Amino acid sequence: MNGKHKDPASKLGAAWRGIVPIGVASFVALAIGGGVDIVHQHQKAGKKERSAKPAAEQDGTGPRHVVAVRESGAALVVRDVRTGRDVGVPVAAPAGQRFQRVAAAGDGSFVVASATSRKVSFQRLRLTEDGAPTEMAALPGAVVQGASTAWSDMAVAPDGDKIAYVTYQSGGTGRLDVVSAGSGQRKTWTSNTPARVASLSWAGSTLSFVWTPAGQGGDRAVHQVRTLDTSAAPGDLKASKAVLRLPQGSTGAAVLSRDGRRIVAGLAKDAYLALQTYAVDTGRPAEVLWRQKAAGTAARVETDHTGEHLLILSSGGRLYAEGAQPVPAEDLIDTAW
């Protein structure tokens, strides 16, 4: 989502079928000449942030591990948000595909999207208690037809079944599919207006997203948070409801709280990144959840599988969580925790 996504397909090893042990995927990664390294070397974090604590002093709130898509799309890694080190070995993408997006599900698993030029498929990843990848299960009935691009986005409902994914058609018009991981049933909403449809998040059957008209950028860009009732009939994205225009300092990274009452937006101001909440019913700012001194803007705001903890992926290539030092992430294009 931060514009670093690249398009060449990854020709990796052997195709997955059903549940593939991570050891097999690791072997594939090792077998590729010039491919994915076993463990990403720990990079020194920048200067200690004013509001961050050293790892030894952290209170342990929030998940410890982030599942992330490497910039090339060739592999997934699990990164420790306290140390910045990778856990276990990278997981190779299916043969002929690239990993695109990853999102947390309510049961603590992760749904991973991979794509060819015209089709997106999904797998479910589970971790051990220590954060190491343990297995990847294909979701054969969950398929989305269309072009996955650097603008594409994904969110998984807390029930772990409903997957929302955005693809794009010629001219930059978006298509939003909501597909069941179990049954494969889907609903589709499309738009005739070129725009970016990003920052997907769920509150029950309500899906929120940030609508940014194509051709806009920088401080002039209009980022509008909208909500869509996915239990209603599919059709045009015009059926969605505008709830908030994000303020200056936002780059369109915002999520809906699980109860549907608050929008949480990532804002950059005066060399700080902050998480600001807004009331859905009034659009008024409520409280600042936390802030940290940081370079760059909020490229993404992520909630964990409980919906209670938040993470910022910055355009400056760092991950920020409450009460923690920033973690290197310049090699990542998408994260979930």
UniProtKB/TrEMBL annotation:
Protein name: WD40 repeat domain-containing protein
Region Disordered, residue ranges: 43-64
Domain of life of the organism encoding this protein: Bacteria
TM spans (from-to): 20-40
Organism name: Actinomadura vinacea
InterPro entries: 6-blade_b-propeller_TolB-like
Keywords: Membrane, Transmembrane, Transmembrane helix
